[in-house]
């Protein structure tokens, strides 16, 4: 790389990596407090996960009031559970309202704290191959929990002979009409993909390898999540779990007879301890009861046009959809090991995982959805603004005519 093709940019404020909902929320807080920043995004749009890696029928699983970003409610005419298109439109309106303009098509290669200079050095590569190094005093990691797809290594998968895609590449079941499709994974995505396939006259089988909580999305017309949050104000977590499971049994019945075994820990306790989100049923269980969606155990291996299960059964299949989730990509680019663990999540659990040392922050890693990301974004923007204004005041007192020698954002 020619030395003249590399630019070095001083940022008079933080660098935010990621222009999803979490990064936008931090940027809006900084904007309202007059703090300059740069927001870097590897894709060519905001919220690329929502715009490019979600299926058509996706809706928010929680009521809109639990999913809105700071200082900008959803429009009144939006339904209680906005769909994918509406949520993207909301985020674009959010960016316009706060005049947030990310640097698109810039992929962060490395970010490292320069101890002698007490500065962060963030190196990016653009789509045309140009290298840029951003130098800043604060770094906000907003790449989130779902930056990269998880693709399991299953014996014989490459020899299947049929179509194999990850759920992030699935749009609708229209192209799978009449086909036998194996959906690997039984979380919210696996359940919804299976339902969508069924609604498009495909023949889905869903792999359920481990135990899982399935709850009704609503209880007596109220959001199950909202009910749980209300009860937690007055009752201990274990008792709220008992109430949730009783409601689930009353509304959904005994799901274990369909091959869906419940974990020993309650849904809220499991979420808090391990970040495992319960499934909110939007119609999949009815299809499982009718036999239109088959529940099968874990996979032993694939063969040509066939899958062999751990119980010895063999099932002919045409296609495989891997609803096997996502992971953080932080370990691939952030050269730091004190604040973030090897799995790319902050070592300190919620609500203490938003701030590290040396101006390092994390947002969107709470495993508590958009509400958790918004709560951390508010803390981060306020903390950065406080420190930035304090340092600005000190600089004015020491060096009235401070001269910047590098291009500044």
UniProtKB/TrEMBL annotation:
The entry's keywords: Auxin biosynthesis, FAD, Flavoprotein, Monooxygenase, NADP, Oxidoreductase
Q: Name one GO biological process term.
A: auxin biosynthetic process
Give the matching Pfam families.
FMO-like (PF00743)
| Pathway as given in its UniProt record | Plant hormone metabolism; auxin biosynthesis
Q: Which cofactor does it need?
A: FAD
Where are its TM segments located? none
What's the Enzyme Commission number for this chain? 1.-.-.-
Q: State whether keyword Membrane applies.
A: no
Catalytic activity reported: indole-3-pyruvate + NADPH + O2 + H(+) = (indol-3-yl)acetate + CO2 + NADP(+) + H2O
What are the recorded GO MF terms, alphabetically? indole-3-pyruvate monooxygenase activity
Determine if NADP is one of this entry's keywords.
Answer: yes
Q: Record's family?
A: Belongs to the FMO family.
What is the protein's name according to its record? Flavin-containing monooxygenase
């Amino acid at each position: 790389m020619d030395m003249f093709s590399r630019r070095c940019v001083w940022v008079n404020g933080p660098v935010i990596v990621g222009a999803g909902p979490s990064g936008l929320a931090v940027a809006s807080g900084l904007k309202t407090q007059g703090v300059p920043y740069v927001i870097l995004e590897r894709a060519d749009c905001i919220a690329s996960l929502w715009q490019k890696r979600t299926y058509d029928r996706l809706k928010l699983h929680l009521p809109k009031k639990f999913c809105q970003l700071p200082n900008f409610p959803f429009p009144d005419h939006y339904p209680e559970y906005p769909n994918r298109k509406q949520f993207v439109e909301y985020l674009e309106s959010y960016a316009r309202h706060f005049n947030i303009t990310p640097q698109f098509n810039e992929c962060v290669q490395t970010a490292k704290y320069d101890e002698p200079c007490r500065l962060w050095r963030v190196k990016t590569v653009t789509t045309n191959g140009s290298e840029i190094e951003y130098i800043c005093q604060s770094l906000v990691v907003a790449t989130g929990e779902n930056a990269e797809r998880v693709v399991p290594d299953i014996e014989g998968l490459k020899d299947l002979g049929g179509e194999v895609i990850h759920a992030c590449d699935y749009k609708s079941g229209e192209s799978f009409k009449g086909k036998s499709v194996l959906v690997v994974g039984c979380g919210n995505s696996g359940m919804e993909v299976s339902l969508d396939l069924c609604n498009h006259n495909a023949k889905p089988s869903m792999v359920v390898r481990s135990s899982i909580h399935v709850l009704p999305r609503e209880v007596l017309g109220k959001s199950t999540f909202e009910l749980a949050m209300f009860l937690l104000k007055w009752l201990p977590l274990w008792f709220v779990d008992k109430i949730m499971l009783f409601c689930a049994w009353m509304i959904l019945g005994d799901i274990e007879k369909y091959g869906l075994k419940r974990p020993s820990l309650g849904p809220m306790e499991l979420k808090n301890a391990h970040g495992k989100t319960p499934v909110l049923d939007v119609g999949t269980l009815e299809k499982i009861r009718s036999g239109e969606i088959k529940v099968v155990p874990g996979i032993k291996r694939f063969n040509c046009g066939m899958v062999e299960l751990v119980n010895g059964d063999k099932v002919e299949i045409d296609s495989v959809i891997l609803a096997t989730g996502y992971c953080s990509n932080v370990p691939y680019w952030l050269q730091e090991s004190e604040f973030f663990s090897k799995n790319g999540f902050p070592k300190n659990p919620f609500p203490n995982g938003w701030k590290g040392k040396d101006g390092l922050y994390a947002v969107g890693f709470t495993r508590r959805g958009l509400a958790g990301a918004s709560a951390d974004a508010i803390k981060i923007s306020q903390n950065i603004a406080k420190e930035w204004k304090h340092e600005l005041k000190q600089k004015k007192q020491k060096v009235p005519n401070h001269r910047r020698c590098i291009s500044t954002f």
